[in-house]
Here is the input.
Amino acid sequence: MIRVQSENFDIGTEIEQLRAGRTDVGAIVSFTGTVRDLGGVERISDMTLEHYPGMTERALEALEADARARWPLQDSLVIHRHGTLQPGENIVLVVTLSKHRQAAFEAAAFMMDDLKTRAPFWKKETTDTGPRWVEARESDDVAAARWQRGASNETAGE
Amino acid sequence: MSIKLLYFAWVREQVGVGEETVDLPDGITTVSDLMTWLKSRDEGYAAAFAKAPLIRAAVDQEHAQHDASISDAREIAFFPPVTGG
Here is the structure.
C-alpha cells in the first residue's frame, strides 16, 4: 500500500496495523526518513516538499510492485509526506514484512533507493541565508544503480 | 495539438506558472523539440530551459528521455532531478 499525505504518521501504529492478525510474518523492517538540521554554518528552519500529484502515486505504486516481484513479501507500506515540515519531523516511511529478515531488509533498502531517484518530490529548505532547492546527489544514483540486475552490490551510496 | 504542460520546483519558479495548456506548432515531435520551443517563448522560459541538460521530463506521468516522442502525449512535465525521501 502507498500513501501520499501532508499529515504526520505514527510509526508504531502503522506497523501494528500491518502485522495485526498475521502469524505468517517473521521479519518486519521499517525505515523512517526525517527532516534534519545538522547544525552547520547554515541552519535549516523548515523544509517544503513539492510533488507531482498523480505521477507520485504511480511512481510509488510501481516501486512497491517491483519490490514485491523481486522479494517474497507478506506486505509492504510506503508513506511519503508533502508540504512544509520542521526539523525532526517525519518525511517518509517504508515498511516491509516477510517470512525471513533478508528479504525484508533488501526490499526496504531497494524501495528507498528507488524512491530517491524516481519519485517526483522536490525539497526546498528555508535556511538563515534564504530559501534553497535541495540538489540531487550522485550518491543516490549510485545507490539506486546497485539494484539493477547484474550490477555489483559493492557500491552502495550513503 | 493541444497539450497540458506542468512545471515543478525551480523550473516552475522560473517559468512563472505551474500548469498551462498550449497549442503546439507543427514539427514538434520530441521532448527536446518542445524544450527548444518553450525556451523561445519569453525570458522566464529562456532562463529555465537554458539549463536543459539538468531538466528531467515526464510524458504522461512516466519518466522520459529528451529524445522521447511526444506525438500521442496528453501531459508533459518538466522538473529538476528529484530529491524526495
Notes: Residues 26 and 72 of chain B are 14 Å apart (CA to CA). The domain at 2-79 of chain B is CATH 3.10.20.30 (Ubiquitin-like (UB roll)). The interface with chain A takes residues 6, 8-10, 12, 58, 61-63, 77, 79-85 of chain B (CB under 8 Å).
